[in-house]
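In response to reviewer comment 3 from the previous cycle, which asked for concrete evidence that the modeling workflow produces usable outputs, we include below a single protein chain processed end to end. The sequence was submitted unchanged, and the resulting structure tokens are shown without manual editing.
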Amino acid sequence: MFDLHAMNLAFGSEIFLIVAGLAGVLAGALLGDKFNTLSFRFGAVSLVIAAIWVALAPQGAVAFGGLLATGPFVNFAKVVAYLSAAIALMMADGFLGRHGLKRYEYSLLIIFASVGIGVMLSSANLMTLYLGVETLSLSSYVLASFHRDSQRSAEAGLKYFVLGALASGLLLYGMSLVYGFAGGTSYAEIAAAEPGIGLLFGMVLMITGLAFKVSAAPMHVWTPDVYEGAPSPVVAFFATAPKMASMVVFAVILYVAFPQPEAFKNWQLIISIIAITSMLVGAFGALLQTNLKRLLGYSSIANMGYGLVAIAAGAEYGAQALLIFMSAYVVASIGLFGGVLSMHREGGMVESISELSGLARYRPAFAMALSVLIISVAGFPLAFGFLGKLAIFEAALSAGLIPLIVVLVLSSVIAFGYYLRLILVIWVNEPAAPFEKVDGWVTGTVFLAALASIALFIFVSPFSDLAGAAAASLIL
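The workflow returned the following structure tokens.
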């Protein structure tokens, strides 16, 4: 037996999104194309309501016999993920309209992907974790290939699907091994199991599958191609809500299901290797790019490496740093992709870095906001991203992870090169053709994200305290 009222309060956001998604399917079937425009506002409002529900929901609830559980750490991630999904959905409105892709199915896919995010974050059992991961993944495969008439979009969707299916297979096989050697699928049962070679193999396969979901090297090969080929608003979603959720799920599984000292040493070594590989592959890969979206793809690989450093530091030191860093990354990323969507020249979107030339002369305020976001995602001072990277540095130092600190600093220095190149092209290079006016909502997102990055840098204490309180719930 379980308390239905408590379950509805604690997990009402997921229930609400499922109902909203089904209502959207019904409305689309009845209204057809008339629902296309309204569906974007309907989806965004639904996601905002879900975020508010999570923020006000009771903490520590358990439902369905322990399959789902909620707490401050995962609820923090849910709020950030749902809000970023809502913003990404509204950013897509104008873009899809210009390309003849404005269909209500898009907003429904975002809603159902967000349901998957909520389920995977609330999971306390491998069964519900896999259900949430696959709900998110299946929606994402369709979103990546949403522009059916574009060869690049179709190719991106196919690559994402094929490699994603492989990663899901590895994840599921790892779960089956963990179940076989632990004797149960709940995180608590796994944590109580005796560590052994079989459990270790299962854990390694699970880490491999989850590393694909966060685009960590060497499971990153899909990222640059999907970032380049998928529609830009889809990439804005991929770069924010799923990344936030997947990194937090990564941390929860390792901290809660594998807390034993022997298991901790094993997964800390594995995560450290993946983090080092991601930071170096992302940094050096971005140096070679001329396409703006591919550069952001490699940048995301490096940034996920930084997040993995926080996870490797352990719950006591790294959980708070992970929340701060990922929140800063989401704010900067949503603004940067808003910038990509806001820049058009000669009837087409700006895609290459060289096409940013002269932006400061034509749109100085916009160029300044974009520069702030570049500084933030780079982790330089005067923006929120710097504090996120500083928190990771302090967590790694407290945990004695000196090799990771060395690579983190090296990767950041390399990243300075390609981020500085973007800023120089924007402010120094001679202007080319003038930029066209685009959707005011998308441009406003860039300014709001830049202001948020500065404000959170200046007034970080309340946010840091909130992240610290959320992270404290994970320390066993």
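Residues 260-476 form one domain. We consider this sufficient to address the reviewer's concern, and the full set will be provided in the supplementary archive.
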